Amino acid sequence: MKTLGIDIGGSALKGAVVDTATGKLVSERFRIDTPDNLNPDEMAGAVEAMAENFSWKGPIGIGFPGVIQGSTIWTSANLHKKFIGCDGAALFGKATGSPVAMINDAAAAGAAEMHFGAGRGFMGKTLLLTLGTGVGSCFAFQGIVTPMELGHFPWGKQGKSAERYVAASVRERKDLSWKKWGGALGEYVGVLEKLLWPELIIIGGGVSADHEKFFKFIKPRAKLVPAEFFNNAGIVGAALWAAERK
Ligand code: BGC
User: Fold this and answer.
1) Substitution site in 69, 133, 188, 207 for ligand 1 pocket (most atoms within 8 Å of beta carbon)
2) Which of 46, 108, 172, 187 is a plausible cystine mate for 63, CB 3.0–4.6 Å?
3) Sign of CA dihedral 82, 87, 89, 90
């Protein structure tokens, strides 16, 4: 079955038509940059443009960087605050004229990796972290993916969200060395290991393409691997989610 998957991120939205039986993209990937902090109506316009690019009418899965319960968006740490309390399925469904299913972006990435990627066939405890503008997280056991918000684990002297120290965007913005950033990430992963005892840790987000530069500083107990989908996991997982909701 073909489904449109859309991954809303901190600086762009990305989408593609996905064959949900194989997890493969069956269209080009399309990207719309969002350098400005789009409010919900503006984002709905961008989602509409995304669907129009593919002349798409049919199920759409959307990964969003916040807590999603049902189709309500409850947090928006790195996007417009007006998203808080919005019904994403209603907002984006109206804009596109298609049925929309909402899922947390990192849970979408986790679903793609557990079905078709680095966690394929693995039934043990798996932690997936996506490192981008923020830190996304989910946990899987017996292949069942649960969205998490570990990027907001209190960190540093002031107990701010850990993502303010270990997101990939922090390394870029502060121009940190791989060693310095990777070391902080290693400490954070160490704490998560104490709490969750994963057997497998999958690191996703664009920076996972550079995993050879920083995995050596993490030193986890669990097996550590990069995501196989790199930056497409969110698109594929969102499409899977929409296909399962039918
Ligand atoms: C959000 C998460 C999201 C992550 C990655 C965090 O700030 O709270 O819901 O998964 O960023 O986008």
Assistant:
1) 133
2) 108
3) negative
